[in-house]
Amino acid sequence: MTIQSKHYEIRPKQAFITPENVSIPADLCCEVQVRSLLQHAYAELVHDNIYKPDGNVPKQAEREVAKSMALMETTDDLFSRTLAILKEANQPQEELLPQLSQLYQKEIGLVPEVDKKTNMIF
After folding, report:
1. Phi, psi (degrees; rounded to nearest 5) at 114
2. Which of 98, 92, 96 minimizes the C-alpha distance to 111?
3. DSSP of 7-70, one letter per residue?
4. Other Cβ atoms within 10 Å of 57 Cβ, number
5. Rounded to an integer, what distance in angstroms lies between the CA atom of residue 111 and that of residue 103?
6. Per its UniProt record, what InterPro entries does this chain match (predicted)?
7. pTM, 2 dp
8. For a pLDDT cut of 90, what percent of the chain falls above it?
9. What's the gap between Cα 22 and its chain centre?
10. CA dihedral sign, ordered 21, 25, 28, 32
């Protein structure tokens, strides 16, 4: 995981006209940012009040923003490590699942469907 927004540049495959009769050329590029609600709140606070403020920015405000970023980074790190621990703990059953699926198909004669959330074969 990462606390950074994901940035994607998208372009239409071909020029088109919207239902509102707006012409969109084929070479039009649009950037899409994907981020969490917390990331968005942080970005809005920092952009409007720290990077482009209407008035003075006290050092204490900058310090509070830095602390909030550190907390977000720590939380992200904890989530990443938790996911790694869970992945490692579930690896044996993940490795066993294809073998069980083959056995099910051989004995029952049907191709099994696997529910990824529950790992149930039916």
Report:
1. -115, 125
2. 98
3. EEEE--SS-EE-TT--EE-TT--EEEEE--HHHHHHHHHHIIIIIS-SS---HHHHHHHHHHHH
4. 12
5. 10
6. NT_sf
7. 0.55
8. 46
9. 31
10. positive
Per-residue CA distances from 49 to 3, 35, 81, 86, 90 (Å) = 20, 20, 33, 39, 44
What's the CA gap between 88 and 63, in Å, rounded? 37
The pair of structure tokens assigned to 13 is 């495959």
Q: Provide the sign of the torsion angle of the four alpha carbons 99, 112, 117, 120, taken in this order.
A: negative
- What does each C-alpha distance from 84 to 6, 74, 78, 91, 99 come to in angstroms? 21, 15, 10, 10, 24
Q: Report how far residue 90's alpha carbon sits from residue 107's, in angstroms, rounded to the nearest whole number.
A: 25
Alpha carbons 117 and 65: distance in angstroms, whole number = 37
Q: Which residues share a beta bridge with 73?
A: none
Of 117 and 83, the one with more pLDDT: 83
Note the pLDDT tens digit of each residue in 87-104: 999 899 888 888 888 888
CA distances from 120 to 31, 48, 75, 113 (A): 40, 49, 31, 8
